[in-house]
Amino acid sequence: MSPAEARLNPIASRSSQRILFPRRLRRTCFHLIQRVNMKLTLALSLVLLVFLCQNVGGKKSHKPADLDDNEFAEFEDFDDEGAEQEATVEEEADFPSESDDIVKTQAKKDDDNEEEEDEGVVENDDDEFEHFTDEDEFEGFDKESRPGKGKSHEVPDLKIAKVPIHLRTNWDSFYLEMLMLAGLGVYFLNFLAGKTKNGKLAQAWMSSHRSILEENFAIIGDDGLSKEAKGTGVFNKESENVYTLWCSGRTCVEGMLVELRLLKRQDLINVMTTIMKPASDQIIVKVTMDASSMDKFCFCIGQKKVMAKLLKEQPDLGQFTEKKAVENYNLPESFQLQSEIGEATSIVLDKKVCAYLEKYEQQIEYIHISDQYSGAKSQYDENQSKMPDVRPSLVFCFNVPGKGKTKTSDVDGMLPLMKLVFYCVDKVGRLALSKEKRLKAEKNRAKAAEGYLKAAHSQLQEAAQLRREEKRRLAKEKIMNEEDPEKARKWEERESKRDMKKKQAKTKMMKVKGM
Amino acid sequence: MSTAAINDVKRPNKIHRYKPKDSSAPGDDPTPDYMNLLGMIFSMCGLMMKLKWCAWCAVYCSFISFANSRASEDTKQTLSSFMLSISAVVMSYLQNPQPMTPPWQ
């Protein structure tokens, strides 16, 4: 080694001095070493490049090259230093808060322990570097505002914003809405099914009864709106479960209204109610007789449960009829009989009718024959002072067999009952009561009419009394408000005179009566 | 033929026209009217108080009212009640897109 080199590198010069070789051998070795050095340098630089690339990728720790030989320490240290410096320059751009680290890594270049270096990067407060945090050391240094420090001690309070669940992202949470829509869908499907079923039942009834209706009536099916009385031949749809048919043009009969009161199959709630409490479809036939065709009597036979309701609703039944025993006519026990005139009852309940009642016990709900038929009285009109509008009528209510689960064939089975209707109509048209029974009936009706008149009269009287009281009260108030005492005294005198006169008149009448 | 003529009960000259029942009188089935009113009340509650379940009940009520309605009734009323209930549902979801929570949660 030359003296210049020795001056530059005192360590190397010392190491070279230790080697005790002859001069010539030393020179050749040195040349060899130089050549090897070149190659080694190249290799080392390649290795260091690789390490640099790794560092740029984010690795803080970089292994310094192993010290192969103390002889090449000078090159090694230089290269390592350069690499470290480059690495830290890269890091500085990413982590400006860790500016301390540059100083630390440079200071620790002698230390080959990687772990310590890593720790040094994390740890901010180290005994060795306390002077960097000393306020006196630097001007304008604010210990508190060190950016790196805050982050490690305070856990930032993160507030996660509540993002509303969007319809498109999360269908599963809308299960209640799906249920609601499904329910609506089911209801709608049931509506269609029920509507169709009811329509089919009405159609079936029409097709099976058309012939008998055409035999008996001039027109079948009238909506009452068209100009000419032309039979439509079809039902009037009152609602999805109520169909009506008006027939007219027959002897003794003004008209016949057939009402198909089917179950509300179109309403799901009603369907469920029917499942719990079975009910039947009903056919109500109301025949309005001509005024002169029917004799005066009132009669009703029906199922016991229904009779109680009818007695409340129908004013004629409550006024004219009395309960009679069904055993006299050999009828089933389930029926209850309300009759006004026994003679009329026995004429109506002949053998044929009794046979029908026995055979179709379940299907006949009630038969109501009355010349004072007015329909169900309104529940709001409790005190009826006026006689209701009455028409002589026959009302038949039949239950369709099947108890809700009706088939079209069941409806066809109602034809014999329609025949019963016509039979009764003819019978009642021909019915003629004996003279005394007729008088009895007329007496009953006169009594009922009188009762209505009295009720009306009493109502009028009450109204008049109320008006008089009101008048007096107003006059009194007026007088009370009157400030002039003179006028008040005069009014009081007049009132007392009036009262005296009234009393005298009453006593006079009493005296006349007594005499 | 003569027997048929004797037994003929038809009287074409004695035809009486059908008089439709007075629709203004309270019918025996007040269900459609009650459901209509209930539907409107639920719709208003759903709109004003932003209650989703109210709006859904309104839709159901208007549906039931429509199913039970009489042919003589005005369809405009049923339709308007239906539209109101639909608008109640839509408005309550626009204002608050969250799904409905059942009462037991």
Structure description:
- Chain A: InterPro entries: CCDC47.
- Chain A: One of its GO terms (cellular component) is rough endoplasmic reticulum membrane.
- Chain A: This is PAT complex subunit CCDC47.
- The complex is a heterodimer of chains A (515) and B (105).
- Chain A is of the alpha+beta class.
- Chain A is built from 18 helices and ten strands.
- In chain A, strands 1, 2, 3, 4, 5, 6, 7, 8, 9 and 10 form a ten-stranded antiparallel sheet that branches.
- By secondary structure, chain B is mainly α.
- Chain B is 60% helix and 0% strand.
- In chain B, helix 2 packs parallel to helix 4 and helix 3 packs antiparallel against helix 4.
- The N and C termini of chain B lie far apart (82 Å).
- Chains A and B meet through helix 9, strand 3 and strand 4 of A and helix 3 of B.
Distance between the termini of chain A: 178 Å
Overall strand count of chain A = 10
Unreliable spans of chain B: none
Strand-residue fraction of chain B?
A: under 5%
Query: Termini distance of chain B?
Result: 82 Å
Protein name (chain B): Protein Asterix
Pfam families (chain B): ASTER
Region (Disordered) (chain B): 1-29
GO cellular component, one term (chain B): endoplasmic reticulum membrane
Quick structural gist:
Chain A has 515 residues and is α+β, with helices and mostly antiparallel strands.
